[in-house]
């Protein structure tokens, strides 16, 4: 009974608001108590409510709406954050954005030119000497051989603004707190200023209570929904309310993030040393500067800080300006410190992503929080949304049962665990340079811990601070011109060590195509491959930091990209990516075959079985390079079905691999691709046994029918 009390009104609004206490509920004990909601009496329930209008919540709402699913978003802030935060958008996220009505193109148009952000620069001050620099872009990154779109450097708040624009274009309305009618069920709306404070699952729906302030009064609002997605960030209320624990390493580093503007600095760096990240080591200050936009002079400075000896309140605007001037090497006349935020670096993944019979779901930072090294935070969250959207749509449209939802956790959680490890490795790689310069951050953290554990309770905090400052300034002295120069034997050996780190590619990398494009689901909404004896083939888990992405048609991989020309009477010149063959507007599977009799037979059966189960499938007939008049054959072979497209390979250069070579298959094979571009099933040669029986098994396994 105690559990029920927590879920209901015993903890009233004021208790929640004043103390912000999140009490976990247990879904096992929750009953339908015929509670409150006015909406549910007439059976009206919102299919999906998303908590959090960060990039993940916004992407999910665009994807769901495009798939025809009604949803709404509640956001506790009154305005969208302008703190730039994440800025690197990887290939895979850009591929997702390509299908969102010109979003990828708009990002590419709006981002700073690549020449201004392709490098990481290591220096003693922004106007001082450069210790080294690393260029992170290679010619092939612009060739669009492995992906139809390049990576981007674009601030998170600007991305959010473009996502809002997308939502408005599909009839979303953004409401301030005053704009809500109490009896009205939100749909295609973002309710700003609405803080999710409790969730109450009943048999039929989840009753979500939000609180907002109107004319000085706290008002509660209830929204009944079928699915609740917690995309509410690292401190997720939804996660806390359902009692899901985070597992991993907590509190790796406390940081202060200073958002500032200076066109003077932007112009200087643009002409003197353009780059994206600046690692600055000087005796007066140490920090990482993220140049979000050199033209606009927009920066974030990240600095470690050590509470309780150092307090966040100590980082006033004036202190931050002084630190920035030390890092720049001179004063800036036009500096404008916009915002100062503390944040804590963790490396943690939620123990589970689903709760309350899979009706409450976590995505993005609510499910995982990584060190920012490698830019996996926001990108992994965007892939979560992409994986989840079609599965929710399939359930709501009656194509798949609820049992498909556990595949979301099965697929995405291992990726988050892998990316956590990778982010830690990248973070360690980022520390290699300061360590070589005699400044091991691990030592700083240990010194800090020792002070906390030993003298922390004995010495007054002012003396602890002096002690810590003294030890740190001894460390910073390693960076003085006196030590760090080629004529000083210690300095010269340290500089040689740093050069080796750069030459061997062991410093922090920007791009991880092997992981960004090559991540692969090992179990989930797919049909496991079996060996010749019929035993399931266990794919090798990925290891280490690898740069190259090798296209793969292995089960669970993202479909390889290849340019193809559409064979259609209307327009024979349209060149698209294989990824464009998968619809962003429908829960539709794609079957890729070669134009041979056995594959046409397979396609006929697939279309028939799919039709019987209300599943949409499109067939893509892949014609080899040079053959252009085959579409009549497809029409005859697949009649009466019409959901097919004939395409011909466009090889770049002309002697490059054929489609089936890229896939490491023969043209006798076939590939079935899910609505999120991942390969759900494939056959390397003809299907063995009764094709109809086999294909029924295939769809059952994928959709959990
Ligand atoms: C200072 C800082 C710098 C960072 N730098 C980088 C970087 O350089 N690279 C990188 O990849 N990542 C970085 N990150 C992480 C990156 O910003 C996150 O991975 C990304 O924001 C995750 O997006 P999200 O939508 O999951 O969560 P968020 O962006 O955190 O959005 C969650 C939203 O939910 C709202 N919310 C929270 N609780 C409630 C509630 N109870 N009710 C209603 N709404 C609620 C919040 O107001 C917020 O708008 C940084 C993070 C911080 C804090």
Question: What does the model show?
Answer:
By secondary structure, this protein is α/β, with parallel strands linked by helices. The chain is globular. A hairpin with an 8-residue loop joins β20 and β21 (575-577). Helices cover 32% and strands 23% of the residues. Residues 1-22 and 28-39 have low confidence and may be disordered. The chain has 20 helices and 26 strands. The strands form 4 sheets. Strands 1, 2, 7, 8, 9, 10, 11, 17 and 18 form a 9-stranded mixed beta sheet that branches. It starts with a helix and ends with a helix. α4 (55-66) packs parallel to α11 (377-396), α11 runs antiparallel to α12 and α17 (597-612) packs across α20 (691-703). Residues 51-57, 74-77, 85-87, 156, 195-196, 231-233, 237, 257, 341, 343, 364-365, 372, 375, 377-378, 381 line the site of flavin-adenine dinucleotide.
Topology (SSEs and partners):
Layout: H1 2-7, H2 13-19, H3 38-41, E1 46-51, H4 55-66, E2 71-75, E3 88-89, H5 91-98, H6 103-110, E4 119-123, E5 130-135, E6 152-153, H7 156-169, E7 173-175, E8 189-192, E9 195-201, E10 206-214, E11 217-230, H8 237-241, E12 246-261, H9 263-272, E13 277-282, E14 285-293, E15 298-304, H10 317-328, E16 336-350, E17 354-355, E18 360-362, E19 368-369, H11 377-396, H12 406-436, H13 441-453, H14 461-476, H15 489-503, H16 513-516, E20 563-566, E21 575-577, E22 588-593, H17 597-612, E23 616-623, H18 631-638, E24 644-649, H19 659-662, E25 670-673, E26 679-683, H20 691-703
Helix pairs in contact: 4-7, 4-11, 11-12, 13-14, 17-20
Flavin-adenine dinucleotide is lined by residues 51-57, 74-77, 85-87, 156, 195-196, 231-233, 237, 257, 341, 343, 364-365, 372, 375, 377-378, 381.
